[in-house]
Amino acid sequence: MVGQMTDPLDCLVIGAGPAGLTSAIYLARFHLKIGIVDAGGSRAAMIPLTHNHAGYPGGISGEELLRRMREQAAQFGGKVTAGVVSGLDRDGDMFLARMGDETWRAHAVLLATGVVNNRPRIDQKPMTWRSAAACCAIVRSATAMRRPTVASPLSGREGMG
Ligand SMILES: Cc1cc2nc3c(=O)[nH]c(=O)nc-3n(C[C@H](O)[C@H](O)[C@H](O)COP(=O)(O)OP(=O)(O)OC[C@H]3O[C@@H](n4cnc5c(N)ncnc54)[C@H](O)[C@@H]3O)c2cc1C
Known about the structure:
Blueprint: E1 9-14, H1 18-29, E2 34-38, H2 62-75, E3 80-82, E4 87-91, E5 94-99, E6 102-111, H3 137-146
Parallel strand pairs: 1-2, 1-6, 2-3
Antiparallel strand pairs: 4-5, 5-6
Helix pairs in contact: 1-2
């Protein structure tokens, strides 16, 4: 069923983490008609304070970064709709994206759905996932350069993002 969005979009962006929002800002600045759908699970929201994002010499929290990026996208018509895209199909030269009982039509789809962490099984002690020390490759590298590190027993599928 084709839902309430009768006019096809130029591009549907799926995912409103930093990747999806950056893309949306560019697409909207090109005056393209876009939609953004997000399931609300951005890994960036877990960043207490990031020091490697350009433009923020004092660092910025993930939540604040996402808030600002959303605001910037919205300035140019890139509004984020909360929801989960559960399926994508082709209909001629059009994409059909299912979201609940709606179907969105778009000439192009940009997948910015991120990744999901394989969280390690640590039985003895509940792990504070927000303690970002080992969750981000950039943080991990920067930390390792500054101080000696203990080799992690976590690897492969149980390793952290
Ligand atoms: C604790 C922690 C600390 C970190 N610290 C740093 C740091 O300091 N510096 C740094 O550069 N990186 C850091 N990272 C990594 C950074 O968060 C990720 O690289 C970044 O969030 C990836 O952005 P993204 O837009 O690709 O994906 P995400 O931010 O994960 O966004 C993907 C979005 O897509 C949505 N989505 C997925 N599937 C669907 C669907 N079917 N329909 C609708 N929406 C969907 C998700 O809900 C989510 O909102 C850290 C990560 C963690 C976990």
